[in-house]
Amino acid sequence: xxxxxxxxxxxxxxxxxxxxxxxALLVGCGDARRxxxxxxxDAPVFAATVDAPIGDIxxxxxxxxxxxxxxxxxxxxxxxxxxxxxxxxxxxxx
Length: 94
Prior knowledge:
The chain is an alpha+beta fold and 94 residues long. The protein has one domain. 16% of the residues lie in helices and 46% in strands. It has two helices and five strands, in the order H-E-E-E-H-E-E. Strands 1, 2, 3, 4 and 5 form a five-stranded antiparallel β-sheet that branches.
Protein backbone atom coordinates (compact mmCIF):
# COMPACT_ATOMS: atom_id res chain seq x y z
CA UNK A 1 0.00 0.00 0.00
CA UNK A 2 1.48 3.40 -0.93
CA UNK A 3 2.59 5.57 2.00
CA UNK A 4 -0.05 8.31 1.39
CA UNK A 5 -2.90 5.83 1.26
CA UNK A 6 -1.66 4.01 4.37
CA UNK A 7 -1.50 7.30 6.33
CA UNK A 8 -5.01 8.27 5.21
CA UNK A 9 -6.38 4.86 6.14
CA UNK A 10 -4.76 4.99 9.57
CA UNK A 11 -6.45 8.34 10.29
CA UNK A 12 -9.79 6.61 9.87
CA UNK A 13 -8.80 3.98 12.43
CA UNK A 14 -8.25 6.47 15.27
CA UNK A 15 -10.68 5.83 18.09
CA UNK A 16 -12.51 8.34 20.24
CA UNK A 17 -10.21 9.71 22.96
CA UNK A 18 -7.12 8.26 21.33
CA UNK A 19 -3.84 9.86 22.32
CA UNK A 20 -1.49 11.00 19.62
CA UNK A 21 1.67 13.06 19.51
CA UNK A 22 1.59 16.02 17.19
CA UNK A 23 4.82 17.49 15.89
CA ALA A 24 4.38 21.23 16.31
CA LEU A 25 6.45 24.05 14.90
CA LEU A 26 6.59 26.74 17.54
CA VAL A 27 5.56 30.09 16.06
CA GLY A 28 8.16 32.79 16.58
CA CYS A 29 10.90 30.33 17.58
CA GLY A 30 12.58 29.79 14.22
CA ASP A 31 13.19 26.13 13.58
CA ALA A 32 12.59 25.01 17.19
CA ARG A 33 10.39 21.92 17.27
CA ARG A 34 8.80 19.94 20.07
CA UNK A 35 6.27 17.17 20.54
CA UNK A 36 2.82 18.14 21.74
CA UNK A 37 0.76 15.40 23.43
CA UNK A 38 -2.79 15.70 22.14
CA UNK A 39 -6.18 14.02 22.37
CA UNK A 40 -8.35 13.41 19.31
CA UNK A 41 -11.94 13.05 20.56
CA ASP A 42 -13.31 12.28 17.10
CA ALA A 43 -12.51 12.55 13.41
CA PRO A 44 -15.78 13.13 11.55
CA VAL A 45 -16.16 12.59 7.81
CA PHE A 46 -18.20 14.95 5.64
CA ALA A 47 -19.36 14.48 2.08
CA ALA A 48 -17.48 16.83 -0.23
CA THR A 49 -20.78 18.08 -1.64
CA VAL A 50 -22.35 18.86 1.76
CA ASP A 51 -21.91 22.13 3.62
CA ALA A 52 -19.79 21.22 6.64
CA PRO A 53 -20.06 23.25 9.87
CA ILE A 54 -17.13 25.53 8.98
CA GLY A 55 -17.38 27.54 12.22
CA ASP A 56 -17.03 24.35 14.26
CA ILE A 57 -14.16 23.08 12.15
CA UNK A 58 -11.91 26.13 11.77
CA UNK A 59 -13.57 28.70 14.02
CA UNK A 60 -11.95 30.28 17.07
CA UNK A 61 -11.32 28.17 20.16
CA UNK A 62 -10.32 28.85 23.74
CA UNK A 63 -7.94 25.88 23.75
CA UNK A 64 -4.78 24.92 21.87
CA UNK A 65 -5.92 22.80 18.93
CA UNK A 66 -4.54 21.60 15.63
CA UNK A 67 -7.03 20.89 12.85
CA UNK A 68 -6.19 18.65 9.90
CA UNK A 69 -8.57 18.41 6.95
CA UNK A 70 -7.77 15.56 4.59
CA UNK A 71 -9.36 13.48 1.86
CA UNK A 72 -11.36 10.33 2.55
CA UNK A 73 -13.74 8.02 0.76
CA UNK A 74 -13.59 7.01 -2.88
CA UNK A 75 -11.47 8.75 -5.49
CA UNK A 76 -13.24 9.84 -8.69
CA UNK A 77 -10.94 9.82 -11.69
CA UNK A 78 -13.46 11.98 -13.61
CA UNK A 79 -13.67 14.68 -10.93
CA UNK A 80 -10.03 14.16 -9.85
CA UNK A 81 -11.00 14.31 -6.17
CA UNK A 82 -12.18 12.21 -3.23
CA UNK A 83 -15.88 12.25 -2.38
CA UNK A 84 -15.40 12.88 1.36
CA UNK A 85 -13.34 14.98 3.75
CA UNK A 86 -12.08 13.85 7.18
CA UNK A 87 -11.58 16.47 9.90
CA UNK A 88 -9.13 15.56 12.65
CA UNK A 89 -8.87 18.04 15.51
CA UNK A 90 -6.16 17.42 18.10
CA UNK A 91 -6.66 19.05 21.51
CA UNK A 92 -3.52 19.76 23.49
CA UNK A 93 -3.13 17.69 26.65
CA UNK A 94 -1.33 19.49 29.48
